[in-house]
Structure formats: structure tokens, C-alpha cells
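RECORD TYPE: protein structure
NAME: peptidylprolyl isomerase
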Amino acid sequence: HGGEARSARGVCPFAVHQSQYQRLTQKMLDISGDGGVLKDVIREGAGVLDSCVFPHPFSSVLVKYSGYLEHMDKPFDSNCFRKTPRLMKLGEDITLWGMELGLLTMRKGELARFLFKPTYAYGALGCPPLIPPNATVLFEIELLDFLDSAESDKFCALSAEQQDQFPLQKVLKVATTEKDLGNYLFRQNRFYDAKVRYKRVRIR
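PREDICTED:
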């Protein structure tokens, strides 16, 4: 599978000598504050640098990614072979804390390379047989799109009486989010899930 065997740029980032790897870490930005998550932007995303263009906690994100171990030329994990990646919800569907933090710093369309130390990846035990103990891993991640679904989820969990108290502008925003999520699921041929999304919000 071609998508599994190469990164988003088509070249394995770790098919290099150790000295090159060390230079890579030196030019990366420390986004965790303790050196545990390092970032290098490969391609800038869309929009200006303000809070509106970054995902929020509990946003639903559409990403492509490939994960590499040091000195290995094939990814141990990748979803690049999929025609349409699965929509994932921050705070629920992503198991790597480093990836969660990294996505919160990305803009739509951005492609970036990250190094995750064990604390932000697979920990002291690793994930046998693929991930050895105390492994630092590299991920190339492309943020294709995101939807801020936190407010929508909060709204849909309310009773009908509580929903009636919501301001109209917020209700319209929730309805738009649910429609966009439904449209995405419909394009994936997940018709039942799309129908659930379309029916979640009724504007009185």
C-alpha cells in the first residue's frame, strides 16, 4: 500500500543519519514547554494567526498522519492509504497526548512534523510488538479540516426546556455544525450516522 509506506511528503523523515536527526530537533519549536513535543511546519495552513483558525478542545478534526520510529523507513502507523480519513474528536478519539497538543497548534491545510517524547506518546512500556519501551516517535500530520463541535454536543445534551433558553445565534451555529458533520458522514456513505446528525437539532 503506497500510502502506508511513505509519509505525507513521500519521503521517510528518519531515513537519515543520526547527525541529521539531531539537527532536525534543534530547529523544531518546543510547543509543550518541556521538550516533550517538538514541531516543525512543513507547509503553512490557511488563515491569519488568531484563535479562530485553530481547533479548540473537543473539536472534530479530519487529519492524515504517518508515525515513524527512529531509523525506520516505513511508518508503524498511517492512515494515508485511506481515501477519506475518519473524523476524530479531540479529547475522545486520539490516544496520543502529543498528537492532541500538536493538533491544537495547527491551522486548516497545515502540514507539520512532530517529535513526541515517550511521556507524550507510548510511555515507558511502549506498545509491543511495534513500539519499543521509552520510544521517541516522529509523526507527520496534515490537518485537512476541523469543526468546533463542542458547543453542538453541549446543546444536544440539554433538555428541550434548556434548549429553548439558548440564544438564536448559538442555535443557528449548532445547526450549521450538525449539518456539516452530517454532510461529511453522508459523503462517507455512513447514511445512518448522517441521519442521526441531521435529526439532532430542531430549531423551534
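COMMENT: Residues 1-17 have pLDDT under 50 and may be disordered.
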